[in-house]
Predict the structure.
Amino acid sequence: MLPTSVSRETLPHWSDASGCWCTHDHSVFRYNYDTGTLRKVFSLPPKRGSAAERLKDRLARSWLRRRFWPNAGIDSLVALANGDVVIVYDRIYWYSHARHGAYAEVLNATDIASAASPLRGGVAVHAHSQLIYYGEYLNGHDCDIRVIRIDVAARTIEACWSFARSDIKHIHAIHYDRFRNRLWICTGDLDHESSFYYTDDEFQTVHRFAGGNQSWRAIALLFDETGMEWGMDAGKDAPADAINLIFRYEFESGLRTECAVIGNPAYAACKFADGTAMMATTFEPGRRQATPEEAALWYRGQDGQWRKTLSLPYAPHPRPGISKYGSILLPSGISPVGQLLFTPVNTQAGHYNLMVWRMPTSNPLASNR
């Protein structure tokens, strides 16, 4: 069964067994996997200011503006165990069904007012403390790179760690590994800047795991009982021979193996409830590698093998706030078996449309693993 469109201009962010948090402009919706419907839950509050500023915000939210001059939308949204939602955007927002109505609450971030935003998919929730962590993603700078901690219960936001600029350029993502109760930090971009770091005590201490070349340059990580897997993120600035691969690392043996040749860099990955997984690759115009001009989805079945399952040819759709890359946006969290939400960007088909892929159990795609 081919993917079908759910809603225009809508992005998926965080999935669980029953539904997925999605956004359209400054509004947040809940997608129900059983009914296939979207329900608006809340919106980001307008900025307070002069009458002119409030009018500007009202016009920006208007149907006409969103239809003909759409923005890039919200990049980072995570959900806590109690159902609360936190958004990292122009400000940091918190929404609790028990506390808030139509609008999210803005958290005071005065101490980190100058902090850069995270890369999409790069925000982690620690399962035990329910603290939220993300790293700054900056280009063309000479400053150290900070890790930001958000404590919703205490309503505090602070920098809890810093990497020297001489060590890394920026942080691609922070991921929580529930099998080891560990936070992993992926950094880039040059060989000496590309590494995996980890912390077992929520940034009281940080340890470098491995790195030193493009094979350790990554955004998306997947974890299981015995190991972890990732797709390389060697983009257009990487040498021609840096063809992107999927790797697997086994913790007990320390053995790292090549699982698949994916060509283009992997920007996102998500798991299904049965342990199978999907990874999305991105086309970067101007890349030196001889790779297909496409954004693609790669599926890992029950046999542990990765196979390309969807290819979307590249087609640029210029828009302020988004890159010219061809990509497929996936939600974080866990998706139910046989269903996947995603939004293509800069592709010939489906550009900025929320798509659902319902895969029956009789389909080999859903029964390989």
Q: What stands out?
A: The first helix runs from residue 51 to 60. The chain is about 5% helix and 45% strand. The helical segments are 51-60, 63-68, 364-367. Residues 362-369 have pLDDT under 50 and may be disordered.
